[in-house]
């Protein structure tokens, strides 16, 4: 059937009812009486030709058809909002400030080089926008995205937060390293196993939530760090073992100051993602940056 303006109004009311959890719960959101809400749903059901929900003493629940209508209507209004944002960006000159959050020590990662391309394209398309680029450890970066201090955060996030959307960009390989002054530096990989490694001090990362320790089954790390430079310094001291991004450790490996241990067994692939608050309507500036980021990385918006 052709969608008319009346259908859009009825669908919006239906969405509000479902998201609120029932007719009574939606009253305050809609500012309508129960009888009026019921009449609107009945009108929508008549228009569609099937029942959308069950209501009564047993409570509120969707029919199979109602669930489909809810999902499709949700997509419809999300597309409408995206269209309106796009049109505003074409009509209005983009200005204001875009705050992007990055994690530390990714500039040497070949996988992250597209970020510079995205920034260059963004500046070309929105020359009047002020870019505010900040760097935080992953946990702090996640907090700043949640609080709205950062519009777009790019990081290998330690956990998934309900209400945030994530766009997968590129993987970062981490390997397990020792410094030149460590006893394992001259020991062949064939002679190194987990039991051997557990004899030594291992660095943990606050933001990895124990992922860097699970292979070694130790109760707690012998040192804790919040960034890559701190971990590299401990490894270079010769007193600790720990994980580092392969691209970041490369400079020290080539200088003969550290080496990877058992790269065939000890490695972690961290997925870098762009994150933003999906509960808030993004302004045209942030929308433009995300669109360019998706294009440059060949990514998909969830």
UniProtKB/TrEMBL annotation:
Domain of life: Bacteria
Record bears the keyword DNA-binding: yes
GO MF entry, a single one: DNA-binding transcription factor activity
Signal peptide positions (record): none
Keywords: DNA-binding, Transcription, Transcription regulation
UniProt domain HTH lysR-type: residue ranges: 6-63
Alphabetized InterPro entries for the sequence: LysR_HTH_N, LysR_subst-bd, WH-like_DNA-bd_sf, WH_DNA-bd_sf
Similarity comment: Belongs to the LysR transcriptional regulatory family.
Protein name: Transcriptional regulator
